[in-house]
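Q: For a teaching handout, I want to show students what a protein-ligand complex looks like in token form. Below are the inputs, and the small molecule is magnesium ion. Please produce the holo structure.
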Amino acid sequence: MLKVMDGKDEEGLRRAGRILQEGGLVAFPTETVYGLGGDALNPDSSRKIYEAKGRPSDNPLIVHIYRWEDVSRIASKVPEEAKKIADAFWPGPLTMILPKADIVPHETTGGLDTVAIRMPSHPAARKLIEYAGGFVAAPSANLSGRPSPTQARFVLEDLDGRVDMILDGGDVGIGLESTIIDLTVQPAQILRPGFVTREMLEDVLGKVEVDATLLRSDINQAPRAPGMKYRHYAPKGDLTIISGPIGQVVAYINEQSGKKAAAGERVGVIATKETRRQYQAQVIKCVGSRQDELEIGRRLYAILREFDEEGVTCIYSEAFFGGGYGQAIMNRLLKAAGHKVVRIGSPDGKKGEGHDSDWK
Ligand code: AMP
Ligand code: MG
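A: Here is the structure, written as tokens, with magnesium ion included.
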């Protein structure tokens, strides 16, 4: 029977650690999103994770550790850059890719010879990893393709009956998955944008590149993080992003919402604090203020799931292009929308439907 335990409860954490050591699965809070943990060095545990999530087995798992010394046990080479960014950002929402050591099974790395490593800062996560023996493979604790869970109830919704225990840590702090940086290439390359931005990494490492496929859908090339090629983070309703001058965006969304509602759809809008009162639609959700990107990141996945709960079949969202953390927000939104973007008020005066390609 599934046990939901308080993530602050010492006894619960120890029991969870034992479950992992015995090859079971435990969902737990981290500062980014909830993770679905298994023993990273046990190939059977990794297989179970893929099965529980319905995740394609070529999509590698991130190995979570709780102390720096353990990096050299699972990586065959630890470049100087690894130590530099660990000093700057660990524990925290940053994952580094390094060549894997033999001890890490290919079941955990999706068949790759590299391993993704992160040291989370959430106290429950850190204790759990320690009690589990030091190495916990943990993708986000959602069914594959669904928005990552930012609350324990969303984990329960997706994984009830598929995990041995859920540790409840309340709302997560960040709400978007970790930044992934590949240190096996020169210069280092960001494979997934997150809370730790390119600018922050460049301050520590010098030049850092960004995988060109991340914000664009027209590049005929697979993203370098295998997981980034899948449609992801998707609500059940059909999501379209509308980009352009904000007044025109609001007008367009209102017009489309009216038409869709008349056709029998239940329409939802992702609005901001600045625009929420200007919309007319059945379900309007405020993702936060444009002045506060952290709030937007924290709210985004919960909103996508709330639309599902409220039976919304058609969703419009404003766009959030921008540098820094805005890249992570827009990357997730684009994936949730299957890259469906309508551009209005473009410089040539045409209304473009389809690609997000010229944007950065
Ligand atoms: P999740 O655990 O759901 O946040 O997904 C983990 C992400 O890390 C996926 O997009 C994976 O493709 C990516 N990842 C994990 N290990 C590697 C690796 N060795 N090389 C490149 N990407 C990786
Ligand atoms: Mg995930």
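A: Two things your students might notice: The longest helix spans residues 246-262. DSSP finds ten helices and 17 strands in the chain.
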